[in-house]
């Protein structure tokens, strides 16, 4: 470790301290647009908050009718929009050190002048490092919620989604259903064909599940060969139909397994969220329904009925 100069031998430098104080006050109080923009942007790593700040600071100098930003981060589209329309637009592909950080578009009823375009570019130059940091932060956040093998949400993402869904169901009384879907006898596939084939089947399962569902439904891998599907605005009868459709879709998977192609079946457990139920209780009931499907011979769906 580097030795620090002992305090008693270092002389204090009042002039430098005074200059530092002055510089801090200047930095803090300056009305200079770029400094203020960067100071505000540095307070947050949320890309949405940063774009809100950028729109706010920019509109003070260069009025516009709408600001749109889009980027694809960790397999998901990130879209930010504020304001409405305008036939004239200027568009910037944001890059830093050769890497892309999204596209920002400003719309306005009047044409942008050359000076205004130069002003926009200056503000974007001031903002780009912060935007890069926010994009990278979002990538890391998404990675922490993503299953590396299949690219869908992981157990942590499911836990968060279940908590949000329980809260919304309690507050608004919407029907939410949960399907737990578990491949049957998956251990045999691993044992006979190896983990690489097993991994391939898991990836194909995730793809099939995503294809079989509506955009508003979300899919998670929350254990080895266990998947969860969260269905907003769906009661248990509708969820049962979805579960059966999912099982049919999974049966169509064909994977090279030697002489004959490998196929899979799945068992599903369904539970609709009950008022005031915690997310853990909800998950436990879906798990109980899945257990019954397994005990009932597999390749079937069981529902934990909300009314017995
Ligand atoms: N290839 C692969 N296999 C995994 C992964 N995670 C868990 N597994 C395997 O999944 C298998 C799960 O086995 P079991 O829990 O006995 O379940 P099963 O054989 O499907 O039996 P049932 O669920 O009762 O039908 C085990 O062999 C695990 O090693 C993974 O990421 N990749």
UniProtKB/TrEMBL annotation:
InterPro entries for this protein: Diguanylate_Cyclase, GGDEF_dom, Nucleotide_cyclase, Rev_trsase/Diguanyl_cyclase
Superkingdom of origin organism: Bacteria
SUPFAM superfamilies documented for this protein: Nucleotide cyclase (SSF55073)
Pfam families recorded: GGDEF (PF00990)
Enzyme class, UniProt record, top EC level: transferase
Catalysed reactions, semicolon-separated: 2 GTP = 3',3'-c-di-GMP + 2 diphosphate
E.C. number: 2.7.7.65
PROSITE patterns found in the cross-reference section: GGDEF
Domain named GGDEF: residues: 174-306
Protein name per the record: diguanylate cyclase
Top-level taxonomy: Bacteria, Pseudomonadati, Pseudomonadota, Gammaproteobacteria, Pseudomonadales
């Amino acid at each position: 470790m580097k030795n620090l100069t002992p305090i008693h031998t270092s002389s204090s430098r009042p002039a430098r301290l005074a200059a530092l104080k002055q510089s801090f006050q200047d930095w803090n109080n300056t009305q200079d647009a770029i400094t203020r923009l960067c100071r505000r942007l540095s307070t947050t790593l949320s890309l949405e908050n940063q774009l809100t700040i950028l729109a706010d600071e920019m509109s003070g100098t260069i009025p516009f009718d709408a600001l749109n930003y889009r980027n694809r981060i960790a397999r998901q589209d990130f879209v930010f929009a504020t304001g409405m329309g305008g036939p004239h637009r200027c568009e910037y592909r944001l890059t830093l050190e050769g890497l892309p950080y999204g596209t920002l578009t400003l719309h306005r009823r009047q044409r942008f002048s050359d000076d205004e375009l130069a002003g926009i570019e200056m503000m974007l130059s001031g903002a780009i490092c912060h935007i890069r940091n926010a994009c990278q932060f979002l990538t890391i956040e998404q990675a922490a919620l993503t299953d590396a093998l299949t690219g869908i949400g992981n157990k942590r993402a499911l836990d968060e989604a279940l908590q949000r869904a329980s809260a919304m169901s309690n507050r608004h009384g919407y029907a939410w259903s949960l399907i737990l879907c578990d491949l049957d006898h998956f251990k045999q596939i691993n044992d006979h064909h190896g983990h690489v084939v097993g991994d391939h089947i898991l990836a194909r399962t995730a793809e099939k599940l995503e294809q079989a569902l509506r955009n508003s439904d979300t899919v998670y891998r929350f254990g080895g060969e266990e998947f969860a599907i969260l269905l907003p605005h769906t009661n248990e009868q509708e969820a049962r139909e979805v579960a059966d459709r999912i099982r049919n879709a999974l049966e169509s998977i064909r994977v090279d397994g030697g002489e004959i192609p490998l196929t899979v079946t799945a068992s599903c457990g369904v539970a609709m969220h009950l008022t005031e139920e915690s997310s853990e209780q909800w998950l436990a009931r879906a798990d109980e329904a899945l257990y019954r499907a397994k005990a009932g011979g597999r390749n079937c769906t069981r529902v934990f009925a909300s009314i017995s």
